[in-house]
């Protein structure tokens, strides 16, 4: 490829959505070849740690982010982080995540709150989630891994427990977990009607990672109505020094979707 990421912002390729024509380990090399300095992925747990380590070492690429195991969440279920009856499952997931964190040394790990059934009081579910956050933070206190929580729009994911940036910040403040930030997903927050520029400026100190995709369609920047040039220019102006994750559905292919790099010129 001819595109080279010589920019101020640190870009991470989400290989759960990008380069999907390749096996997962080959996507890491493809991301490095495309110029990304880090990768992120939803769930690494089906790949042996040794295989991931070998590939990371060969490509000299970093891991910016992955998620805690989330049980049945990926298959449309409620997940395990805010359901009282699934506490044992959650704690086992934390133990598994810790092994991957200690070996792979990601910058951050994301705890998906999940989608508790609508008949359960949301305040009760949030209390369970906060208790689980505290448990995870205690287990990870000797790592350098930042914990993130991500608001997700309720159009794409009905009943998701945390839908807005302000709701995520409320959880952070109530939990009193120090090593906890917001994963700010531009696509999801735009879908929820947030003014992206204002939200980033107001909540900047709470943001620990940013992901992006355009709307509608969740495709690459430039395919929808979000003004990414203004967003990226703002992040540069604010000296944003954490990772910026490309988490979109590429159209038509990943290589052909990278024209959004012009926003960094």
Enter the CATH topology name: TIM Barrel
Q: Bin the helical content.
A: 25-40%
> How many separate domains?
1
Mean pLDDT: 96
The global form is globular
Please state how the strands of the largest beta sheet are arranged side by side.
1-2-3-4-5-6-7-8
For CATH, the homologous superfamily is named as: Divalent-metal-dependent TIM barrel enzymes
Give the SSE order as H and E letters.
EHEHEHEHEHEHHEHEH
Observed structural traits:
265 residues, alpha/beta, TIM Barrel, globular, disordered N terminus
Polypeptide structure, described:
With 265 residues, the protein is α/β, with parallel strands linked by helices. The chain has a single domain, classed as TIM Barrel, CATH 3.20.20.150. Helix content is 36%, strand content 14%. The protein has 9 helices and 8 strands. Strands 1-2-3-4-5-6-7-8 form an 8-stranded parallel beta barrel. Helix 4 links the parallel strand 4 (108-111) and strand 5 (146-149). It is globular. The model is unreliable at 1-7 (pLDDT under 50).
